[in-house]
Amino acid sequence: MSDETDARTRSEERAERAERMAKEGAQAMAEHLASVKAVDERTVKLRALRLAKEAADAEAKAAAPPPAPKRKRS
To answer: Is 68 helix (H, G, I), strand (E, B) or coil?
Structure first.
């Protein structure tokens, strides 16, 4: 009888461990996906800022008068 209860106890422990591991795995995956989403959102925001800055720089360069030509030394 003792062997049977030990086997049942071990079986229950394995089942509890498997359930706990599944929950922890799901939680870890959710955290990973949230992290990936946050990185993607920051990337989109930074790309938009960079493109706006590049456009403003190009506009300012186009509006600025051309530099005076350098004189050659004789």
So the answer is: coil
Mean pLDDT to the nearest integer, 56-68: 88
Q: What is the dihedral of CA 54, 57, 58, 61, to 10 degrees?
A: -160
Q: Which helix (H) or strand (E) holds 28?
A: helix 2-63
Q: Please state the rounded mean pLDDT for residues 40-54.
A: 98
pTM (2 d.p.): 0.59
Torsion of CA 67, 69, 70, 72, to 10 degrees: 180
SS3 27: helix
